[in-house]
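A further point concerns the way the authors explain their paired sequence and structure data. An entry of this sort, consisting of the sequence and the corresponding backbone structure tokens, reads as follows:
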Amino acid sequence: MTVPGRRSSTFSRLLRHGFTDPSGAERLLDVPELSALRDDPVLLDALGATADPDLALRGLVRLVEAQAETERQTLTTTLLSAKPFRDRLLGVLGASEALADHLARHPRDWESLVTYEAADLHPGVAEFERGLAEATDPVSLRVAYRRCLLAIAARDVCGTTDVAQAAAELADLATATLRAALAIARTDAPADAAMCRLAVIAMGKCGGHELNYVSDVDVIFVGEPVEGADEGKAIQAATRLASHLMRICSETTVEGTIWPVDANLRPEGRNGPLVRTLSSHLAYYQRWAKTWEFQALLKARAVAGDPELGAQYIDAVSPLVWQAAERENFVPDVQQMRRRVVAGIPVAQVERELKLGPGGLRDVEFAVQLLQLVHGRSDATLHSGTTLDALAALAAGGYVGRADASQLDEAYRFLRAMEHRIQLYRLRRTHLVPEDEADLRRLGRSLGLRTDPVAALNKEWKRHAAVVRRLHEKLFYRPLLDAFAQLAPGEIRLSPKAAGQRLEALGYADPAAALRHLEALASGVSRKAAIQRTLLPVLLGWFADSADPDAGLLGFRKVSDALGKTPWYLRLLRDEGAAAENLARVLSAGRLAPDLLLRAPEAVAILGDPGGLKPRDRGHLEQEVLAAVGRADDAEHAVAVARGVRRRELFRTAAADLIGSYGTEDSPREPDPGALVDRVGEAVTDLNAVTIAGALRAAVRAEWGEELPTRFAVIGMGRFGGHELGYGSDADVLFVHEPREGVDEQEAARAANRVVTEMRRLLQLPTADPPLLIDADLRPEGKNGPLVRSLKSYEAYYRRWSLVWESQALLRAAPMAGDQELADRFIELVDPLRYPAEGLGEEAVREIRRLKARMESERLPRGADPTLHAKLGRGGLSDVEWTVQLLQMRHGWAEPGLRTTRTREALAAAHAAGLIPTEETQTLDEAWVLATRVRNAVMLVRGRPGDTFPSESRELAAVGRYMGYEAGHVGEMVDDYRRITRRARAVVEELFYGG
């Protein structure tokens, strides 16, 4: 008798044995049907050893209750006396609610778990065919299938088989089931069966002999007419048989379903015929098939139907599989397939995805298959459809390091075991790790994690997923470096031919040169070479993810050659995780940033500084430049220092732009392209203004000391004044001066002209730093007018001679360098011109429209595609800017927000003032940002300015990556550009020409 308020001894024992609901378990143990078992300690011990003792006990009670009176004692006696049977039955009941349901519906099926002989431990297709032999219809086939599945699960949960053997048994059971289903279909349609030969080819995990508990069974059907039959009618008959086979396995009956049979891997997918002849299959694969289809065929295996036809199919397609790596678009196709898989996972599920998420099963399978396709061309030992067998063969052949292969094998087995146990619980197709605590506890215990199973499961899962996440480093790249390293005993070196094949398959256009770079960087026994061998596998993966891996590797070698002897360089890359990836992105994204870096490689330190990619503000830059100018011995040296600062800051800006556009593991891609454009425009404008200020100070000091005889200011115009400079933009300026008190006007003018000439000379001197070109063609009278004018001269000219285009150009005028007070007075002078009181008259509006129309017809370069020219083309920069500027000149006098030199600010102000509807504003802004990014991209990629997309394929691909388009999507990028700018041009037609 239990004392009130105290727990019974049974309650305590149940807790110790792992029950989470001991009170409920006590009630279940008290049911009359368990009277023969209740007091036997063996039962509690066995229940406590299961994944979920509560679930196992509930299932046992249901099974015992379902027995006929005459059978119940047989079951309980066997349960107590036969330990192997007890472990099997309770192990299944504690792991699978669905199989407990099956046993409750078919109470005699427990007898299938009693036999414990050698043949029973490792059954094959023949044994499973015998187990299904009595099935004559879909319902009886399901019952027999579940009975066989029960035995597989029992061996699995008890550890009699490992995860790979269980997967192989599941594939063998699927093979036997497909054969049984085909036999039923043929019996139901003897006329169809007599007319055709039909072979069933297993694909995917079934073909690879590594099936899950619940998975689609992927198949391809091949048909041929029997001798003398009409081919068309025979294929129709084969199609009916194949369709019936699929329904037998897939349809839901009173006994549920088996699994869906999926034939979508066939030629043309679901749009293609379900059954084709062998010659039709071959014609498709030889002419139309995509890379992924050959990758899928790697697992093809004939499993049912006509064995001779199945063998002919496998023999015919195998050579095509092993030639796939020689296809023109093999590398981008493979990269695109993996990205598409990851991109398709809902964000909320990506961290719980065992199969498709980062560090998941598909990562291992995908990488192993890629290496098989690359090296299987010349090594038949790699021709296996089973992932773990293929991984072992890759290690045996030296294509993968043995230790890495072993570690990856362990990770893959653990993740597959997790997947099996998750699916086994309810026999549902899922790859998501559960969130419920009880489910996680059962899952952890089923994998042998008994002490704090939830925490231990999460720890092990994350550990193995981390191993898989480093997959590309381990499988693809490290063996390339081992080719130049001292290998451990027993390791096999990757041959030069195999290394070249791998590099070519990973996107390197010149594998021989790449191997030379790797040898130069990683050979030898020095500490430097050892660090390089640690870094390079990771860097090679990042390079391969770019549009030009060769350029990335070459740039890295050059930087390493320049900095290899400095103690901090390799330490920075090794110890600062972001620095190495940032460097890889910058070096492989185009020519501009690497050129800037190689002129002063020490700037690589910027990439490891957490705040290093943030643009420095103008005040700090100006202070640095002017201080350096003050310390310099002469003007040339002073401006060389200023240009060096400009080069360093250009590199900082370009690196931040590239990393923001590509994204890295530590820093996601900037979602707002407008923010990237604004940052680049502001940063380049600031550093050009500071450089000009430094050149002005140097020129004045060289001839006049601290003070010029005339006050002098530089006014930014065009994109310079608008703070919208790109990497390749000239600096449009006006020069204004005002004689100091007591200085003759002619003397002041000569001094002003001399200082301008000297500034331009200094900024264009041939040095290692990029020149800064100053363009003063927007001055009054253009190239025919004086280079410098006094403020009075500007006032007189604008009062008497100013043309409407000059007023429009002055919309961008902004002080940049020199005397601030003089610059402010110049701005006061031109404000009435650019924002005329009461707005522009109709004649002025017509004149602006005439100028724009003439520019469109005359200035577009000959042969240029007007739909793709970023500056002067349809819906490009000129279209948007002239539309915004017309609004500024018409309404700026009344709307203060329009009085800005920045295009996007003015556009937003026009919208706020009700001058442009929301949709039209967004259309113009999107087109302007897009066209600006195209120009920036071209400069970053080619290292020289351009207003249209490059024609060379690698350069175009690099522009696409910068713009956010994955490999193989450059056509989509060009189409998007045309679509967006076409819409913008329609808005321009309405607002500029029609408004």
